[in-house]
Amino acid sequence: MARRRARPGQPEDVENLPIVFDGDVGPEALGRMLPADTAPEEAWPDERSAFIAEASRPWRPYPFSTDLTRRSRGLWLQQPIFALHRTVERRLSGSDRRMDGIRAAMAVIREVAVQGTFDDGPTWVELVKIAIRAVREQLRDAPPDLVIELAELIVATLEARGSDDRRFTMATYDPASGEVVEESFAYLGYVRDVNDDLRYRATEQAIFVYGALADHDLEEELQGILNRLAEEAIEHGDIGRARQISERQRVMALRINNNIRKLCIDLKANPEAVTWSRDIGQQVEHARGHLDRRVQEQGRIRLALKERMPETSEREVVEEMGDFLAVLEGEDMGLTQLQSTLMRSHDTFRDGQAGAFRMRRRSTAIDPMAVAEAVLDMRGLDLLDAFSAILPTFAPPEEQRIADMDRLLARLVDNFAMLDRAEREPEPIEETSIPIDDGHERNLALEERSLELLKLAIGDRETADLHDIYGVVDTLTDDFVLRQAVGLACAKGFIDHGASLGMDEAVAPDLFANDVMSGANITFRRTA
Amino acid sequence: VSENDDVRRMTAVAAATRLLDKGCKAGSPGGDPVYKALLARYEGDADLRLALAQVAEGRDLVVHEVSQTYGVTVTAKEACEWALTPSKIDGWTYSPEPMRGVLGAVMPFIAAVFYPTSAVLEDVTLAPDPLTARAIRTELLKACERRRAAHPDAKDDAIVRRGEEASQMAWEIILNLTPKDDRGSGAKGDRIRIRKIADLDDAVDVALRLLLDWGYLRQQGPDRFYPTRRFQVVVRETLLPSFYSAARQAANPQA
């Protein structure tokens, strides 16, 4: 998966930018990236383990890592875990047992992280027990001494015992000093509690590695757990504890939120990086999903608090709840803000991309004037057909019924005006006789009926527009002919009150507020 | 504030439908607080985005752009129930067929006068100068003369019998139209409706009026017109590609 970064001011040249980082992470690539003295001594195992096969595939980026240094840092961080897996395989090579060392280590990290999220975290003995469970999960019938040996091996690797091990140091380039700095790390850290016992915690590196290797975001999962804990605490009326958990959750979320902010900046800074499109989209979706979930979780806690509030009579507790609620609401607002920042940045990014595409399209796009002149070369009939087909696709859809009724009325008024003119300037009538048939009577009945409807529709109103009139008419009839007749009656009323030649003259004072041509509604006012 | 609350309380589908209806009307969101609130919600609400796409699909509409400033630019697909049919254009029914064709040639030409090159068309920062109807007509006649020059084998001032206009090219029809007295601006502001497209002025008038109605043009002073952002989007996304493929199809019917 190649990623290219556009440089500011060179948007058109995105295709030719150098490839900054080739994300292939196979054994060879890994060997290439390591300094000679830390390169794996033995050959990588063939695809004996599905997990290794998975790890050898082009690596899926950590959900938020648009930062390439962070990705390469991830490779260093995974080294000891891979080494652990190889050691486990060597240990079991004589027997027919197989164990996935990476999976076991991940299970331990997860368990420690979950336990350490709120409580003090496991002691050393508990840690070994966790490791034993992780081994047993895969080697159900193994003898106890083997299980304990493997468990201790896992624990030793995770807490980086014998920290002179070069695998636990990581060379990072410090741009400030321009030097390569060596940092050491461990997957598990510990603190001493009041009883002077060691209490273990998963480090940030462990959580990062977990995200990369287990293809799963541990931090988000931990947040879910904390959220449930907070809800439970509220249920039990322990508001202080709930607040404390929520605090912890927020601290944890801060890191993810910072990554989202970073993503926003990346999106805004690299809008022309066309080739990023696909994996950026995925990351934005992920970030958005995370924020959505967080907003929902916040909502649930708030709801739980509100439900709880009336049950409590002690004043301090209620006050504490109110404070807590205010904090939660503040955070909710922050999350919503972050969400919309993310959307906006993504929009900027997509606009930039569209711009870049357009810029490329421009070289091949045909000029509008050339198109217009080509259209002039079309034959009349072809053009007519084409225009009839194209018109609907570039005109906005019609404003529906009301607009149609306005148009109908305008047409009727026009026809009446024409009739009016014809009456005053009689033209020689051609020899055509109009047979009087039964339809004539029917039409009269229709006219009466429509007038009745119109009266009903106008009722006691002082003013009515077509919307009002048809609103009533529609409830009384669904006969289309009758509806038209009502329109005709409206128009006739219009004509009777002074409409004659053109619409400009048709506006009888105090009768109509008329704005037919602009498509606005005609308002009828009751006359004396 | 109350509009904001109302809009926030709506379901995504309700908000999408409302937003689409607002977009179908010609106006920009300027004076409409509900429209503004809907657009603001659209910016931050993934559900609303999805719902808008779905509602538009269901109603056979195409949403080209949703912008805080310019609102929703939407056009209909051919299959849409509310698609504008030519018969609803003023004067269409009584106009002879060749003149209807002329109207079809005038529409893309107006677009081309405002956006002559694709670079101008793509430039969102550029606002074309207002033009009068007369200027547009003059440009059109010039373009027709250019077409005549490009077809040296065409007969000069051919007298075309009635009924044969339809087989002529659009530029021929336009050049053969008997010129009328110059009526000043060319925009017949004093006339309420055009009953029938009888000459080039009518065609330009009807086209300009339609574009005004659709919110694609705005009027400045009595007789000057300038395009809106909506027009730019529509020209780029549908009008130009459609006419281009129609012209290409007409030029090479076998292809």
In short:
The complex is a heterodimer of chains A (528) and B (255). Chain A has 528 residues and is mainly α.
Percent in helix of chain A: 55-70%
Q: Could you tell me which chain pair has the largest interface and how many residues each side has?
A: A-B, 54 and 76 residues
SS field, number of helical segments of chain B = 10
List the secondary-structure elements of chain B in sequence, H or E: HHHHEEHHEHHHEEH
Number of strands of chain B: 5
Identify low-pLDDT runs of chain B. Answer: 183-191
The first-to-last residue Cα distance of chain B is: 58 Å
Radius of gyration of chain B: 21 Å
Q: Based on the structure, what is the oligomeric state of the protein chains?
A: heterodimer
Please count the helical segments of chain A.
17
Topology order of chain A in helix (H) and strand (E) letters: EEHHHHHHEEEEHHHHHHHHHEHHEE
Structural class of chain B: mainly alpha
> Count of DSSP E strands of chain A?
9
Main sheet properties of chain B:
3 strands, antiparallel
What does the largest sheet of chain A look like?
3 strands, antiparallel
Average of pLDDT of chain B:
82
Main sheet of chain B: which strands, in order across? 3-5-4
